Amino acid sequence: MKTKLIQPGVVTLVGSGPGDPDLLTVKAARAIQQATLIVFDNLVSEEIRALFPDTATQFYVGKAKGNHCLTQDEINQLLIDYAKSGVDVCRVKGGDAFVFGRGGEEMLLLAKKGIHVEVIPGITAASGCSTYANIPLTHRGLAQGCTFITAHADKELTANWSALATLNQTLVIYMGLSKTEMISDSLIHHGMDSNTPVALIENGCTRKQRVFTGRLVELTQLKNQNQIQSPALIVIGEVVTVANQMHWLEQLSERSSSTDAAQQQMKLSA
Ligand code: SAH
Q1: What's the pLDDT at 270?
Q2: CB burial readout 55-91, b (16+ within 10 A) else e
Q3: Does the N-terminal or the C-terminal CB of the chain have fewer CB atoms within 10 Å?
Q4: What is the C-alpha separation between 27 and 22, in angstroms, rounded?
Q5: Could you give the domains of the chain?
Q6: Is the per-residue pLDDT at 65 higher than 80?
Q7: Is 129 in the pocket of ligand 1 (CB under 6 A)?
């Protein structure tokens, strides 16, 4: 008797962006709408989860720091098992799967198992969160480039601090919240000006977004005073001053429009 071969399902790695569902690409939104099985991470925002079709089976695999629902190996196995049973899997990740998202590992592993993988890029946190905070990552006269790094390491963090401290570029640090002291100390120790502007962006691109700016030397203080929680992004560099200018300009235009309104009111009542 011949056993019938099951055609493996396709796994689609979907980058869902930093939180705002309007930042989903058309392709990502379509993949989510058409999904029958969704495996999603902690970083996928509530607003995006609300778009998951009722008909789709949903599998939360967590991965908040220190609170892993499933290990990466277990997640990999889950994806392999489902695909091998002939089910298409929509694997939804926060931001972009290929930027500190382990998307590359999942893609290679699935391909090795003969499973077809598609990857849909998403807006990464550095881009989305800094834009929503009015911080351009590059800006003429302030930063000619930008470096993304992660402060997360399985063992010891081995960043080249002396290179990072002297690049004169914007630095965006992912997963850096628990290491703010080490980050500012290392950069200052290797020559970065302690007054370099910094921003902490918490829950960027969601309704809960909070942004705080200060100086490199007070990064930890800024975090503690404002009780910043994960997910949060650290932006270091002169470009942060653009957000401060915008804040000031917005206040100015609010003030002048309320003065206009008051003058209008006075004219009417005269
Ligand atoms: N693949 C994701 C990054 C995963 S690493 C991407 O491309 O964006 C997780 C880290 O990303 C968090 O610890 C935090 O530093 C950052 N991050 C992701 N989403 C964020 C958000 N909405 N607000 C602030 N930081 C965010």
Answers
A1: 56
A2: eeeebebebeeeeeebeeeebbebbbebbeeebbbbb
A3: N
A4: 12
A5: 11-123 (3.40.1010.10), 126-246 (3.30.950.10)
A6: no
A7: yes
CA 126 – ligand 1 centroid, Å: 8
> Does 63 participate in catalysis according to the annotation?
yes
What one-character-per-residue DSSP string does 162-174 give? HHHHHS-SEEEEE
**Alpha-carbon separation of residue 90 from 42, 52, 83, 120, 132 (angstroms):** 15, 11, 10, 11, 27
pTM: 0.91
Q: Which of 51, 52, 35, 49 is nearest to 87 (CA)?
A: 35
Pairing of strands 89-93, 57-64: unpaired
SS3 state at 26: helix
The gap from C-alpha 181 to its chain's centroid, in whole angstroms, comes to 21
Average pLDDT, the chain: 92
Closest CA to 78 of 39, 119, 43: 39
Instruction: Please give the pLDDT value at position 69.
Output: 80
Cβ–ligand 1 distance for 101 under 6 Å, the answer yes
Nearest atom (ligand 1) to Cα of 230: 13
CA of 147 to the centre of ligand 1 (A): 15
Checking if the pLDDT of 268 tops 60, the result is no
pLDDT, residue 256, reads: 78
Distance CA 172, CA 239 (A): 11
Segment 96-143, tens digit of pLDDT: 999 999 999 999 999 999 999 999 999 999 999 999 999 999 999 999
Q: Is the CB of 203 under 6 A from ligand 1?
A: yes
